[in-house]
DNA sequence: AAGTATACCAACCGCGAGCGC
DNA sequence: GGCGCTCGCGGTTGGTATACT
């Protein structure tokens, strides 16, 4: 690490850590309402919160932001997360972007606590049911798409997205989707300009 | 009832990218 | 071009709740 910029690390000993109180939430929400969700260091100072900017940002993004949905992830949402994860890998922010009101942190937690286990179980079951395949073929098929762009992470999302949606319809073949099951995906593209551009 | 293990999730940390000076 | 600051992301940790023995 060439530098340790102030503001990237909550290094002050006297800074508050741990769970947020209702009072802190209220102060933060008030200041963000006035000044907007930016310059978090200044927001923390203006709110009189003994917290680092980073902590304030996280709190706002995950809990205080308007239209945040908490808990009760529906089957539909779960299905979407599974599909998107298969497509995007651990790009939690991108996945969250497709689920209105959900945060990357929540999805990440949900994945780690629920879905990763579910998947492992499913894999176990399918391995027991399927005839043994050649190792190379299995790994080729199961290789997450995002792996290819994982190394050299600069502009990784952009590059990765481009590689996924450069018009190659084999993307869908890879997931062995029935046409009807792709309904959600077409809606996906229809509703987002950025993704449309990539497609 | 007490102790231990496991699950869940809020919060923190390290890092890289982008921007303005 | 280099530096400092800010933002955002993904991985990890730690506290709390719940289940199990």
TrEMBL record:
Pfam families: Myb_DNA-binding. GO terms for cellular component: nucleus. Residues 12-64, 65-115 form the Myb-like domain. GO terms for biological process: cell differentiation; regulation of DNA-templated transcription. Residues 12-68, 69-119 form the HTH myb-type domain. Signal peptide: none annotated. Residues 120-162 are annotated as: Disordered. The keyword DNA-binding applies. It is found in: Nucleus. Keywords: DNA-binding, Nucleus, Repeat. Gene3D superfamilies: Homeodomain-like. GO terms for molecular function: transcription cis-regulatory region binding. Residues 137-159 have a biased composition (Basic and acidic residues). This is Transcription factor MYB114-like. It comes from Gossypium stocksii.
């Amino acid at each position: 690490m060439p530098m340790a910029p102030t503001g990237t690390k909550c290094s002050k000993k006297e800074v508050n850590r741990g769970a947020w109180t209702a009072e802190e939430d209220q102060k933060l929400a008030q200041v963000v309402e006035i000044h907007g969700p930016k310059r978090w260091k200044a927001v923390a100072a203006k709110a009189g919160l003994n917290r680092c900017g980073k902590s304030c940002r996280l709190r706002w993004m995950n809990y205080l932001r308007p239209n945040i949905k908490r808990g009760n992830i529906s089957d539909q949402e779960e299905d979407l997360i599974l599909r998107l994860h298969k497509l995007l890998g651990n790009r939690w922010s991108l996945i969250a972007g497709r689920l209105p009101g959900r945060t990357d942190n929540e999805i990440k937690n949900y994945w780690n606590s629920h879905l990763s286990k579910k998947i492992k179980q499913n894999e176990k079951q399918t391995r027991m049911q399927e005839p043994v395949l050649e190792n190379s073929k299995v790994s080729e098929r199961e290789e997450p798409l995002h792996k290819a762009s994982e190394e050299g992470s600069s502009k990784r999302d952009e590059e990765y997205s481009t590689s996924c949606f450069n018009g190659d319809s084999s993307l869908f073949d890879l997931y062995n989707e029935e046409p009807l099951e792709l309904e959600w995906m077409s809606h996906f593209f229809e509703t987002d300009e950025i993704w449309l551009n990539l497609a």
